[in-house]
């Protein structure tokens, strides 16, 4: 579960460099086209720039699309109701959380929803390792957006509703997972190599233990992203550069697979011939 959380909530620590091959696809619709880049949400300044073909695709794009616009000043008050727990943590989990946070000198508010706490713990661990959201892939492209419009695949409010809709048991399992040791080394290398099979296996190998999380965080969201992308591909204003968590682009039920099942031409730009931007 923790590997899944790391990829969905913050994705893994990974050092993107010009010779790295993160998941990168071109989608051709009836009228429009899009580039899909599998992202990591935290990073370091020396992650960049990306490979030339990725940088060129962004420069040639007319629109930047992210999962959500996290910089929207109006969103903070809208999402606040989703941040708090609906019921107290079990005593055993509350004690474990207090000990975990105490050992690390962290202040952890048990009134927060367990999924929020799990994200805070993982973000803190990433920060201790020197990785920050300010240097994530989304921030890298947002800072260079210029006059391009910013579109949202989901939006913060939708994402909050998804996590808030998880049962107490699933959220508590997420929190338990966030306190477990995790070796992200193989996951990092799979991302850098562009090894989709290994990336999917490492990310989802334990998800069968939490079918509710799999359905809500992956299957349903992937279907929604597919539908949004198909709608966007009816737009003729120019190529769309889409940055989305890498976990959504690999595996049999990924956004990529779902788009192909709808008859769209989706090309892996490391293995096939993508248009030259």
Can you offer a commentary on this structure?
The chain is an alpha/beta fold and 277 residues long. It has one domain (2-268). It has twelve helices and six strands. It has helices at residues 2-10, 52-60, 75-79, 91-103, 114-128, 137-142, 156-164, 168-178, 185-193, 196-204, 211-232, 255-261, and strands spanning 24-28, 33-39, 63-66, 150-152, 240-245, 265-268. It has a six-stranded mixed beta sheet with strand order 4-3-5-2-1-6, sandwiched between helices. Helix 9 (185-193) runs antiparallel to helix 10 and helix 11 (211-232) crosses helix 12. The longest helix is centred in the last third of the chain and has 22 residues, at 211-232. It is globular, with a radius of gyration of 18 Å. It starts with a helix and ends in a 9-residue tail after the last strand. The model is unreliable at 9-15 (pLDDT under 50). Keywords: Signal. This is TraB/GumN family protein. InterPro entries: TraB/PrgY/GumN_fam, YbaP-like. Residues 1-16 form the signal peptide. It comes from Ferrimonas sediminicola.
């Amino acid at each position: 579960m923790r590997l899944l959380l790391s990829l969905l909530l913050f994705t893994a620590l990974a050092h993107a460099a010009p010779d790295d091959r993160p998941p990168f696809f071109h989608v051709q619709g009836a009228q429009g086209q899009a580039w899909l880049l599998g992202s990591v949400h935290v990073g370091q300044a020396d992650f960049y720039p990306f490979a030339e073909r990725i940088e060129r695709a962004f420069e040639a794009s007319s629109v930047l699309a992210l999962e959500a616009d996290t910089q929207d000043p109006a969103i903070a008050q809208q999402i606040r109701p989703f941040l708090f727990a609906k019921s107290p943590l079990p005593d055993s989990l509350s004690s474990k959380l207090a000990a975990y946070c105490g050992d690390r000198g962290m202040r952890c508010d048990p009134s927060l929803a367990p999924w929020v706490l799990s994200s805070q713990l993982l973000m803190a661990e990433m920060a201790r390792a020197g990785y920050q959201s300010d240097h994530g892939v989304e921030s890298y492209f947002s800072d260079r957006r210029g006059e391009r419009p910013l579109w949202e695949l989901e939006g913060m409010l939708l994402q909050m509703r998804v996590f808030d809709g998880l049962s107490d048991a699933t959220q508590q399992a997420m929190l338990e997972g966030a306190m477990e040791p995790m070796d992200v080394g193989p996951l990092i290398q799979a991302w850098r190599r562009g090894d989709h099979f290994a990336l999917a296996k490492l990310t989802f190998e334990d998800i069968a233990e939490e079918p509710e999380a799999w359905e809500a965080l992956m299957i349903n969201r992937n279907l929604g992203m597919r539908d949004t992308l198909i709608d966007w591909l009816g737009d003729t204003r120019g190529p769309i550069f889409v940055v989305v968590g890498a976990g959504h682009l690999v595996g049999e039920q990924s956004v990529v697979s779902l788009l192909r099942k709808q008859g769209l031409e989706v090309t892996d730009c490391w293995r096939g011939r993508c248009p030259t931007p």
